[in-house]
């Protein structure tokens, strides 16, 4: 079973760390058996699974329900639960209370704090409470204005932070490590800033959107990796599978069988019973 010290050891040896964003028990089981080191319960569940307009609508109670399911599905992988927007921004005491709730009620191994560089006191307080922190940094919707970056452009596939921001981002990573972060999630890193940040700290640096081999590992949504989104029915994405298309074909075949009164695979035909 991977541990946080073991992941630090992988950074030193150059062995990449595999992270998967999962939001339910079944996907957690599948990702764990596929060899994921880390299962991240992202607040992206609100947009990608529940259809919210943005992740700010997700509550702490909802994150706890989702994280419980993922924890039950995880075998050897570590489980990390995102803070929703609010507890970190409300101050260290609020952050500690949320972290303790998450760990006690879900069994998560660590918590992920988005925009952690603006709340180093919160990072340090959570760490002092005994909860490991996966600190997010980089250019996010909340931080784009500060860096003078068009976040809409960075949301496109392959987008990376400007190389000119590398020095500032290296300094931020060092502050996060000094505050007690166990790992860093570097959004939209790029090969220049990503490499410099990764080399500047002793803790693992992973990347989700915009990540690459210049980091210590990668985190990707399971649903994105397998092509689960309904949008894939119209425009197939560059993914490892096209699950949305397979599911659509299977359900369409099921619907056709029901309407034609044919035997339903895996079920009992009732069309001839007179009901």
Q: Fraction of residues in helices? A: 40-55%
Overall number of strands: 8
Strand content: 5-15%
N- to C-terminal separation? 53 Å
Quick one: biggest sheet?
8 strands, parallel, barrel
Low-confidence stretches: none
List descriptors:
275 residues; globular; 8 strands; single chain; eight-stranded parallel β-barrel; 13% strand; alpha/beta
Structural account:
There is one protein chain. The protein has 275 residues and is α/β, with parallel strands linked by helices. Helices cover 41% and strands 13% of the residues. It has twelve helices and eight strands. Strands 1-2-3-4-5-6-7-8 form an eight-stranded parallel barrel, surrounded by seven helices. Helix 4 (60-73) packs parallel to helix 5 (92-106) and helix 9 packs parallel to helix 10 (191-200). The protein is globular and about 65 Å long. The model has no long low-confidence stretch (mean pLDDT 90).
Task: Summarize the structure in short.
Helix content is 41%, strand content 13%.
SSE layout:
Blueprint: H1 4-13, E1 17-21, H2 25-33, E2 38-41, H3 45-48, H4 60-73, E3 78-82, H5 92-106, E4 110-113, H6 120-128, E5 133-138, H7 144-147, H8 151-154, H9 166-178, E6 183-187, H10 191-200, E7 205-207, E8 217-221, H11 222-225, H12 243-260
Parallel strand pairs: 1-2, 1-8, 2-3, 3-4, 4-5, 5-6, 6-7, 7-8
Helix pairs in contact: 2-4, 4-5, 5-6, 9-10
